[in-house]
Model the fold of this input.
Amino acid sequence: MDNVNALRSIAEMPINLSVEQIGALQAGIKALQKQAERDKGCEYCNNEKVFGINFGGEKAGIAYLHKCSDGWGLFLEMDNGSTYYTDVVNCPMCGRRLK
Ligand SMILES: [Zn+2]
Done:
């Protein structure tokens, strides 16, 4: 049983919990779910999905994450032909630590 399910089953047990205790459990479940989502990553850092870059509401280019031999990079390809590359440690979309 993972942590989320363990906490949830505690929250559902027919014992007398105060409103505060239930609230604390629910907050704990939420935090763990968020953590689990972050650990899983998103389509951008798992599948190197391309996302658009907008400046002032106008499409200005595309960006994607790519794992290089020396770590993760964020590549930007602007519509004006410029390209940029920067090292990234965390996914800019979901915050997962890239490795
Ligand atoms: Zn991500």
The chain has two domains: 3-40, 43-87.
